């Protein structure tokens, strides 16, 4: 009562007297507080901002006018402060903290990539288009504060956890640990948790949706723009388990994609973007015949359901129009009643309310929802309403279905090891009050991020062999993780490919033309499959042809399936050796020894005090017994110790070479290196680190040449495929289009030379200056076996051109230095063509279904601006403030807008877009030691000789230079885009439905569902009350 009275004194005049006379409101407030706490998602202790416990204990509402109580409640909400993720630690010009921007302690944390976070508290993000002190939001933020303790306890129990969060149905996002959010350059944070796949999947069941868009003449101007944005926002809410189609209607039906007439398509990113592009082609004319559209929509849903495709769960028709002259009850009676299995969601576009009753009746009579959208700023919030309706059956069933999302990149945790792929595990949160059960009130969705690599830790890389790898896919066949998944493009800029999360397994394991492996894994089977594969290495320039054995099974409790690929000849046998811990520790202490930091020798994530340790440091502490809490792979560590002891003598050999000045007098050899099957590496520099020609070699950023989670180093893998005892020479490829490297790498594999089936246990190599290597070659080429030492012909003669090429056809040595690193076929097309004909080399066709191709697109700033709800809304506000003619908003704004914007000249803008490409690779035939040939050209004959260099992958080619043979075109390795411009081919690809496994859980309907809450006037009135009360409070407080 005292608390209530003190608040009443804040008012003046009659309001103060009324409030003071009715201080029964304290008891009403206690009742409200009790209700709020009972709707919480956890039975934890009350938040720190809770009222006095003695007030909370009062449950009996006393008689009296409740006006003051309502005022007090809103006053409390307006005064309540929370940590807003955007405003925390922000101050005004006077140095005072902004409202909702109190001091929030942030400290760098290595578990979160050294981001400044608060591991004691969560904070709250509110989308820019929402008022951060909206009573509904503040109410939800208030009761969800109890999650702080839950988040902290979870992190204490499992320190490997990363982000934990709660996405509210009201739109706010509570995240732990607390972190500061930064707006974009326009001051906007467009993130809305309700648009994220984890939220939608957890809140609703899979659905088949037909979107009907009115394109009659009355939809011209701004209404059509709003309608398009509404369709786009609906598409945002559809996920990979959903199916959809879009039909525009006036007197006739117009499928937005004519190819998909009468069917539905999976709502993956590619298909949704395809439909978005076609939305621009819609224009308004004629008369709207809704009955035709409704008949078509019901028939599509029925026919598609009978095929056994689609979601086989919820079905809905989304109607976007500016009016309906009838209720069309005969159509609903024919197709949908009495079961009402197809929900109808109606969106009234514009300010006119003349047809609102008909549209609302259609929604209410079919378990849907009606809403009115007057401006672009209203679109997103109104579209979200249908998700609440679809979540009702799941909430009433009280089912906490756990969902897992496909892989995505967490940009906040990206590090030197590249992008961090995540999957989210989430579940719905709902009220358990019996009196609200039939309403199916969804409070939100709670989730946490799981690094994909965590799912693969049970499969140690060292057990998979040199070329082996593990991978996982979703129930839709999309890759969760795979060594060939390339989510980024434009090296250096690290841009995400738009469709990186929906790359199908058949697009990387493309040799499986019949999808045998893919379909078995999608169907969650356990088994084995074998096929010949062509694996590209060295930035796609080289290819390894091998046979892989695939083993696969499902991952229990998730929609994922796991596969392991073992290359025949590797991974079947494992070499074991035993040494004492003392011996091994002694040799591990050498400064040139390192281990693969992406391999899990010891689990350093379990305890915070271990997270700063490298794997090598962790092993040393573990072996010395100084960290009893460390959990390590004993078998792997035993083999590491053995490798350290066995490889230690090579240090003495390298040291002797460095001391022997005659062996490397001009310091042509710069680096020597060794790697073993356990991920142990030894590196010796023969020159100072600052003098290295290739500064990046064997560094963390040189992903292809070090041991990492996906593969062994490139020099190790290529050496393993050569004949034992032979060396592999190559020039490293740069990331640019032109390869001009100044070094040569040589490596060879090491295995036991006896009758036992020994695996490759190590590889050793050197890197030398290219100029040094070429000088050695030219010196050797001038030596002749004749008695007088004179050569009848040599590479110095002007009549011949000499080349040294590798087994993939790349030039290491040429008289023209600029040709170094080029493909031999580009320089000597006629000779390469002859070598292919003779069988000395063979062409292998490869495919890249994750390529990015340059495309020319017409761009107009105005057209794209209209579909941006923020930009369009701000532009509209500025114009309205200038003109002050509200009537023109409905009819002339968009035409005025277009006349100004589209008058600009159309520009051709070159962009990078996802595409499929085909390109060749070339491999030499091992049995060819020496061969020669003649090529008949137009007016001359061109002769050549090719000879293999013993114990290497190199060939010397001598070509007659007097005959140019220009009639034969060069042979290039340039990729060719697989054309999709053929309309029939494009159509077939859109229609193609690969096998997928639908989620096991489905909550499409519930008999206790309250379908009367279906939007409309009552909903609008409630929102007006929420708006007016804070305004009245401000008025009375003056």
Strand count? 39
Largest sheet: 7 strands, antiparallel
**Percent of residues in beta strands:** 15-25%
Q: What is the overall shape?
A: globular
Brief account:
The protein is α+β, with helices and mostly antiparallel strands and 1038 residues long. Strands 3, 4, 5, 13, 14, 15 and 16 form a 7-stranded antiparallel β-sheet that branches. Strands 6, 7, 8, 9, 10, 11 and 12 form a 7-stranded mixed β-sheet that branches. The chain starts with a helix and ends with a helix.
Give your account of this protein's structure:
Belongs to the calcium channel subunit alpha-2/delta family. It is a single-pass type I membrane protein. It holds the Pfam family VWA_3. The protein has 1038 residues and is an alpha+beta fold. The chain folds into five domains: 107-193 and 406-448, no CATH class; 205-387, 3-Layer(aba) Sandwich (Rossmann fold); 459-567, Beta-Lactamase, CATH 3.30.450; 581-774, no CATH class; 795-854 and 914-974, Beta-Lactamase. It is 29% helix and 23% strand. It contains 31 helices and 39 strands. The strands form nine sheets. Strands 3, 4, 5, 13, 14, 15 and 16 form a seven-stranded antiparallel beta sheet that branches. Strand 6, helix 9 (222-236) and strand 7 form a beta-alpha-beta unit. Helix 3 (25-38) packs across helix 5 and helix 18 packs across helix 20. The protein starts with a helix and ends with a helix.
């Amino acid at each position: 009562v005292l608390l209530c009275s003190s608040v009443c004194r804040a008012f003046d005049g009659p309001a103060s007297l009324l409030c003071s006379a009715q201080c029964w409101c304290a008891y009403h407030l206690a009742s409200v507080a009790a209700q709020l706490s009972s709707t919480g998602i956890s039975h934890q202790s009350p938040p720190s901002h809770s009222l006095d416990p003695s007030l909370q204990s009062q449950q009996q509402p006393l008689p009296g006018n409740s006006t003051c109580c309502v005022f007090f409640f809103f006053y409390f909400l307006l005064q309540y402060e929370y940590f807003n993720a955007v405003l925390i630690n922000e101050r005004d010009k006077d140095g005072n903290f902004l409202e909702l921007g109190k001091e929030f302690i942030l400290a760098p944390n290595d578990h979160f990539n050294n981001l400044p976070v608060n591991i004691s508290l969560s904070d709250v993000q509110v989308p820019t288009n929402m008022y951060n002190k909206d009573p509904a939001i503040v109410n939800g933020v208030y009761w969800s504060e109890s999650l702080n303790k839950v988040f902290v306890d979870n992190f204490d129990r499992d320190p490997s956890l990363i982000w934990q969060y709660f996405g509210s149905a009201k739109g706010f996002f509570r995240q732990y640990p607390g972190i500061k959010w930064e707006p974009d350059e326009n001051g906007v944070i467009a993130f809305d948790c309700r648009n994220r796949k984890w939220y939608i999947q957890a809140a609703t069941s899979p659905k088949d949706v037909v979107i009907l868009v009115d394109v009659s003449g009355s939809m011209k101007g701004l209404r059509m723009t709003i309608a398009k944005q509404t369709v786009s926002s609906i598409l945002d809410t559809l996920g990979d388990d959903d199916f959809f189609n879009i039909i525009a209607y006036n007197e006739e039906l117009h499928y937005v994609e004519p190819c998909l007439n009468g069917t539905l398509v999976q709502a993956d990113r590619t298909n949704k973007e395809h439909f978005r592009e076609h939305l621009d082609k819609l224009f308004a004319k004629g008369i709207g015949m809704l009955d035709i559209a409704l008949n078509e929509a019901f028939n599509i849903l029925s026919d598609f359901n009978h095929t056994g495709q689609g979601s086989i769960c919820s079905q809905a028709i989304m109607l976007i129009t500016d009016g309906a002259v009838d209720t069309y009850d005969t159509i609903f009676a024919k197709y949908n009643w009495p079961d009402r299995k197809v929900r109808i969601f109606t969106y009234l576009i514009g300010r006119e309310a003349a047809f609102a009753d008909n549209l609302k009746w259609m929604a209410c009579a079919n378990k849907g929802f009606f809403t009115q959208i007057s401006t672009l700023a209203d679109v997103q919030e109104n579209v979200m309403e249908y998700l609440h309706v679809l979540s009702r059956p799941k909430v009433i069933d009280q089912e906490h279905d756990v969902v897992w999302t496909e892989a995505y990149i967490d940009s906040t945790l990206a590090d030197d090891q590249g992008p961090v792929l995540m999957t989210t595990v989430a579940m719905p949160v709902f009220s358990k009050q019996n009196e609200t059960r039939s309403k199916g009130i969804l409070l939100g969705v709670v989730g946490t991020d799981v690094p994909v690599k965590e799912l693969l830790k049970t499969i140690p890389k060292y057990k998979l062999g040199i070329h082996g790898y593990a991978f996982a896919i979703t129930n839709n066949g999309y890759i969760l993780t795979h060594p060939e998944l390339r989510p980024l493009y434009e090296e250096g800029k690290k841009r995400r490919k738009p469709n990186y999360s929906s790359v199908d397994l058949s697009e990387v394991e493309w040799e499986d033309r019949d999808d045998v492996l893919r379909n078995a894994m999608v169907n969650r089977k356990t088994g084995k499959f074998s096929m010949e594969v062509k694996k590209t290495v060295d930035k796609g320039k080289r290819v390894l042809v091998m046979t892989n054995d695939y083993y696969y099974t499902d991952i229990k409790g998730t929609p994922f399936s796991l596969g392991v690929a073992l290359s025949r000849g590797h991974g079947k046998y494992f070499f074991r050796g035993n040494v004492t811990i003392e011996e091994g520790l002694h040799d591990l202490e050498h400064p040139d020894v390192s281990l693969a930091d992406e391999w899990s020798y010891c689990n350093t994530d379990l305890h915070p005090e271990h997270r700063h340790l490298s794997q090598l440091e962790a092993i040393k502490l573990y072996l010395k017994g100084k960290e009893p809490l460390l959990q390590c792979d004993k078998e792997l560590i035993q083999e590491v110790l053995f490798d350290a002891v066995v490889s230690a003598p090579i240090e003495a050999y390298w040291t002797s070479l460095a001391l022997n000045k005659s062996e490397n007098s001009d310091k042509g050899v710069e680096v020597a290196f060794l790697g073993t099957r356990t991920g142990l590496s030894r590196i010796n520099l023969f020159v100072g680190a600052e003098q290295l020609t290739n500064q990046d070699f064997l560094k963390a950023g040189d992903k292809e040449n070090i041991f990492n989670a996906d593969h062994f180093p490139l020099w190790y893998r290529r050496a393993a495929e050569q004949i034992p005892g032979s060396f592999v020479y190559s020039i490293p490829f740069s990331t640019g289009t032109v390869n001009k490297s100044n070094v040569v790498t040589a490596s060879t594999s090491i295995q036991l030379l006896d009758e036992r089936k020994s695996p490759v246990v190590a590889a050793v190599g050197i890197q030398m200056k290219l100029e040094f290597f070429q000088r050695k070659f030219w010196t050797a080429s001038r030596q002749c076996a004749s008695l007088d030492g004179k050569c009848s012909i040599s590479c110095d003669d002007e009549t011949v051109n000499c080349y040294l090429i590798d087994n993939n056809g790349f030039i290491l040595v040429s008289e023209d230095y600029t040709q170094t690193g080029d493909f031999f076929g580009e320089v000597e097309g006629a000779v390469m063509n002859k070598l292919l004909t003779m069988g000395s080399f063979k062409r292998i066709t490869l495919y890249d279904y994750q390529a990015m191709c340059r495309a020319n697109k017409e761009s107009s700033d105005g057209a794209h601006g209209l579909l941006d709800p923020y930009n369009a809304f701000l532009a509209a506000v500025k114009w309205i403030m200038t003109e002050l003619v509200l009537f023109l908003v409905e009819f002339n704004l968009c035409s005025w807008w277009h006349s100004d914007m589209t008058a600009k000249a159309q520009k051709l803008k070159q962009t990078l877009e996802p595409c499929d490409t085909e390109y060749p690779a070339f491999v030499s035939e091992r049995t060819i030691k020496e061969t020669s040939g003649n090529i008949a050209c137009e007016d001359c004959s061109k002769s050549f000789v090719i000879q293999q260099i013993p114990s290497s992958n190199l060939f010397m080619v001598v070509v007659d230079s007097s005959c140019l043979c220009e009639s034969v075109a060069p042979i290039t390795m340039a990729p060719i885009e697989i054309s999709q411009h053929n309309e029939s081919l494009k159509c077939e690809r859109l229609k193609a439905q690969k096998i997928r496994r639908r989620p096991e859980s489905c909550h499409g309907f519930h008999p206790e569902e309250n379908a009367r809450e279906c939007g409309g006037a009552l909903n609008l009135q409630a929102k007006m009350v929420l708006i007016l009360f804070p305004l009245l409070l401000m008025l009375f407080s003056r």
